[in-house]
Design goal:
GO terms for molecular function: DNA-binding transcription factor activity; transcription cis-regulatory region binding. The chain starts with 10 loop residues before the first helix and ends in a 12-residue tail after the last helix. It has helices at 11-34, 41-48, 52-55, 62-87, 93-110, 112-119, 129-133, 139-162, 174-184, 193-214, 226-239. The chain folds into two domains: 11-60, Arc Repressor Mutant, subunit A (Orthogonal Bundle), CATH 1.10.10; 61-245, Tetracycline Repressor, domain 2 (Orthogonal Bundle). By secondary structure, the protein is an all-alpha fold.
């Protein structure tokens, strides 16, 4: 059987790929500095010494460019989370999950503008929820699915090993059951409904706390949200049946 070998890119294709990469990097800088409202193709073109019409040879619209930048950001964040997961010692699902949660907060608090674009209201009017969280094959959807799979797979592994308590399906409000089933069908990992319920509850607590910290909504009470995050992380280790896996972060 003949093995298929990818043909090397032509000089023209390499030049185009380099230009696309530079455009996205420039757009990211503009987005970080000025937000989505300040991102115009002519602003990106001006930064690159191009004309705005010239950008249309690479991206069909402003929305197309933003979507590609968002996909790259999701991939960047997921690369960080996967690296932390794979480097965790011990390499147990519980410790990996707690380490990944901590890495998520670290990335969010050191990339506030990018976090706002991915998870906040910065992109309202540019994306619908299904643009990222749908089950399609657009780059931004594939990147969003890959991000979600990191947490979903680890929760599934923890449950398989520890069988943490989950509500019986009949004890979940019927209207919530319907919504959880719809969401579960989009997950890259098949999970029982009760596990999905616990997973979502844990995610709301962690994600909600990180959002409030990044967007400055905890300043009324906390100058440093780190200890509160660690308290929540420790509490969630109890919910997931892995309290012995929790370790305070290194100084």
């Amino acid at each position: 059987m003949t093995e298929l070998v990818d043909e090397p890119l032509s000089r023209r294709d390499r030049a185009r790929a380099d230009t696309v990469r530079e455009i996205k990097q420039t757009a990211r800088r503009v987005l970080v500095d000025q937000g989505v409202d300040g991102l115009a193709l002519r602003a990106v073109a001006r930064e690159m010494g191009m004309t705005a019409p010239g950008l249309y040879r690479y991206f069909s619209s402003r929305e197309d460019l933003v979507e590609n930048v968002v996909a790259d950001l999701y991939d960047e964040l997921t690369d960080v989370l996967e690296a932390v997961r794979d480097a965790a010692d011990p390499a147990t699902p519980g410790f990996q999950l707690l380490s990944v949660a901590r890495a998520f907060r670290q990335w969010a608090t050191t990339h506030r503008a990018e976090f706002g674009l991915l998870f906040g209201s910065s992109a309202q009017g540019v994306f619908r929820p299904d643009d990222v969280h749908g089950d399609g094959d657009r780059p931004v959807q594939l990147a969003g699915q890959r991000f979600g799979a990191v947490f979903a797979a680890l929760v599934a592994q923890v449950h398989l090993e520890r069988h943490f308590p989950v509500p019986a399906e009949e004890d979940i409000e019927p209207a919530l059951q319907v919504q959880l089933r719809n969401w579960c069908a989009k997950l890259p990992v098949a999970l029982p409904l009760g596990v999905v319920h616990v997973f979502l509850s844990c995610w709301i607590r962690l994600y909600g706390l990180v959002c409030m910290e990044v967007f400055g909504h905890l300043r009324f009470a906390l100058d440093d949200a780190g200890p509160m995050f660690e308290a929540e992380l420790r509490a969630l280790s109890l919910v997931l049946g892995v309290p012995e896996e929790y370790r305070p972060p290194a100084a």
